[in-house]
Amino acid sequence: MKKRATLMDVARAAGVTMMTVSRAINNKSGVSASMRQKILDIARELDYQPNQIARGLATNQTTTVGLVVPDNSNPFFAQIARGVEDQAYEFGYNIFLINTSEDPAREQKALDSLLGKGVDGLILCSSRLSESRLVRYIERYSASVLLNRDIKGAIRNTTAINLNDLRAAQLAVEHFISLGRKNIAHICGPANSISSKKRLEGFTSALKANKFTSFDHLIERSAPDIPSGYAAAKFLLTVHPEIDAIYAFNDLVAVGAVQYCAETGRRIPQDIAVIGNDDIPLASIIRPRLTTIHFDQNFIGRLIMRTLLEIITGEVTPRAIQIEPELYIRESA
Amino acid sequence: MKKRATLMDVARAAGVTMMTVSRAINNKSGVSASMRQKILDIARELDYQPNQIARGLATNQTTTVGLVVPDNSNPFFAQIARGVEDQAYEFGYNIFLINTSEDPAREQKALDSLLGKGVDGLILCSSRLSESRLVRYIERYSASVLLNRDIKGAIRNTTAINLNDLRAAQLAVEHFISLGRKNIAHICGPANSISSKKRLEGFTSALKANKFTSFDHLIERSAPDIPSGYAAAKFLLTVHPEIDAIYAFNDLVAVGAVQYCAETGRRIPQDIAVIGNDDIPLASIIRPRLTTIHFDQNFIGRLIMRTLLEIITGEVTPRAIQIEPELYIRESA
DNA sequence: TTGTATGCGTTATCAA
DNA sequence: TTGATAACGCATACAA
Question: Which of A92, A99, A200, B168 is the most exposed place for a label (fewest CB within 10 A)?
């Protein structure tokens, strides 16, 4: 391994002091054009690469941000991460990626270590920390963006970005109603999921707003996977064969429901319409193609990073941003 | 935002010098047990978090590694990244994630910036750099692991990890033969893909080893997605209806082939057997469930990180590691 | 067991 | 336009 050239090395080779080189490298004023060119040439020749560690110590800036997610292999967060990284790249930032596995203890360690690394900002997705703990951490970062997590009091230097899950459910219900469906069911997600809670809320409020009454028995809980969706659909349709529409917590649950319907000879969407949520790649692969709620994760990722950058550079930003869902109508409803 | 406590702050509060605090924090010998406890208590009270930037400058170590991948939202690399991060977490390391989009220029920038950040090691996946350029970079890192990229000369401080794609194709072919198939076709991937090249090579050599002759006309190239797989299968089966087995470049291509077969009334696997590659989640969701070649990406990710750690700590490691594939037999073959 | 001096590579500040 | 000096926060080497 070769030893890295330092500012000092370049300075010696150019016959000037480190400061002149520093100014040339960071193209600051105060260096003659000819001198600058000479220094730049020498730097290139020596493969000089600024030591960001030293620079970080001197300036208290690292052009680095932390990205904390439950699981980067979950397609949702994978896309978010991609969007964040793309945008970060464009602005010359690097990102630390850390998974929490939805474990609060691991999340805390992540936040501690990121603090130690001196990141300029923090992106925290689906935090499982208690309000008070979370606030305590946020206060120690000079900039942060929260995804999918509300925070009570307004805190400086932080912005919360949330998916409008209420609206997502509303879109599904309204589409069913426009299709003339009368017995609309909902397979909701895990009880501890905030998204699940909000979608359920949106589901019931949308039905009420449309004069539907008595639908509590058409709501069934399910784990967010295909087999559970299958089981939930089986239960619902066995007890209530009159159901003609199902809004599923996510696409996997929807696929499970579709599979059960197919196996029991129900035609989709003629006999029963199904709407999923998330628009995972599978949604457009299976037959019938799944009608589903779409959030543009890549866009969200870019938005997150841009927002963080605005906070870092001190521009004013709103303290809360809502992401609006879109209904992608395909074949299942 | 609160100002961070430094070693100095803790020292003052404890009435000792920075060095004593430093020893206590890093639990090195030379501090009385009582003193150490007192210091640790004060440090906790002050929310003291070691400044890794300063530590990095002093020790030339950052407990940080760089992970460069073509696209972290590609499930294959997402899983790899997860494995890497999990293992890194266990050893107290943080990872920088950078995407290249398979763009050599972007890859180079990534390697430059990582060098600047002073990472202790580099993980480079599917590098598109020329041999000479790549070697030049590798030499500037004190430790590195290459995935899916061979390098000619043996270089100190680096290990190449490769999937045994040759063997993957061999497994598929041998399974077809054990099934009694006589007309085995292959839909191979993009010409610039190393994996595709090696699988194609494995395919032909396995057939030759089993006394098959004249099968070049049963090989068709395809982009790595469903529609292209569909088109390739259509072409092959139209021209050569006698085909009774297809080994596809990846699962998406296989799904496309399966869809074409289904639409033309061919029974799978009775009339035609299909084997994919990668074992993406979709493979076990569609019907018939796809028989495919499986690599345990999470395991590979962990292996990569462990190997890198061994190089960093100076333990001896092999300069090349092969990952063996497994055939997951499901319903399509 | 504890303390002192010095340096890591860079930038900020002030002087020339 | 250029240079000298200090500072960032910590660890290493050596001394007490």
Answer: A92
